[in-house]
Amino acid sequence: MIKICVSGSKGKMGSRIIGLAKADKRFDLTGEFDLDCPAESFIKGCDCLIEFTTPQATMEHLALCEKHKKAMVIGTTGLSDAEKEKIGEASKRIAIVLSPNMSVGVNLLFKMAGDAARVLGAEYRVDISEAHHVHKKDSPSGTAKELARIIRSSGPGADISIKSVREGEIVGDHTVTFESAFDKVQLTHSAKTRDIFAKGALEAAFFLSGKSKGLYTMKEVVRLD
């Protein structure tokens, strides 16, 4: 069994990861803690830390995972380029899965958006719309930013706009619209519950089992290539 520890245990994502982990025979939940608890003793006792918290806490826990040679699944959003660079450096010594969205369906959306950008080309304007619950702090979402990055890298010259909505208790909706003077192509993913992200995080932890170092995304976890 893989020993996992969950950071942000009192949060909506953390609590769902814990719930699913307890029912999954592949995992032994050896620790769970929130931001007001000392983390090191919990991290020392696990094989892999699953992290859905704040950028500051994530960086602190990254240092501890590096110190104790523990794998890490990072679903925290709002990370700066400098923080992502630190994660990349740490991955030379420990195994890490970093993704702004752990959902298998959203990662399929990433691939489809990249494919669409390559095929449709620069004559299509691209609009990304995303909607989340009122409690979400970052805007646009990490998923929307990743969609924009993938489209720009896949379709040179793409003109991209992002619209964000924070309303009610929306789990997460993302739509990419490619529009020209002649037609419109839309790709949409709508999350019904947070369990899809929690399930993906557990799949990422399972993927890291036996890996000593390296930086991975959900693309490798779900084998989208």
Provide a descriptive summary of the structure in words.
It contains 8 helices and 10 strands. By secondary structure, the chain is an alpha/beta fold. It has 2 domains: 2-98 and 195-221, 3-Layer(aba) Sandwich (Rossmann fold), CATH 3.40.50.720; 104-191, Dihydrodipicolinate Reductase, domain 2 (2-Layer Sandwich), CATH 3.30.360.10. The strands form 2 sheets. Strands 2-1-3-4-5-10 form a 6-stranded parallel β-sheet, with helices on both faces. Strands 7-6-8-9 form a 4-stranded mixed β-sheet, with helices on one face. Helix 3 packs parallel to helix 4. The longest helix is centred in the middle third of the chain and has 17 residues, at 104-120. The model has no long low-confidence stretch (mean pLDDT 93).
What would you report as the Rg, rounded to the nearest angstrom?
18 Å
The amount of helix comes to: 25-40%
The CATH first-level class of the largest domain comes to: Alpha Beta
Can you identify the CATH superfamily of the largest domain?
A: NAD(P)-binding Rossmann-like Domain
Mean pLDDT: 93
Main sheet record: 6 strands, parallel
- Structure annotation, total helices: 8
List the domain count as a whole number.
2
Terminal residue distance: 28 Å
Structure classification: alpha/beta
Strand order of the largest sheet: 2-1-3-4-5-10
Strand content: 25-35%
Low-confidence sequence ranges: none
Secondary-structure element order, N to C: EHEHEHEHEHEHEEEHEH
The strand count comes to 10
The CATH architecture name of the largest domain reads 3-Layer(aba) Sandwich
**Which descriptor suits the 3D outline?**
globular
CATH topology of the largest domain: Rossmann fold
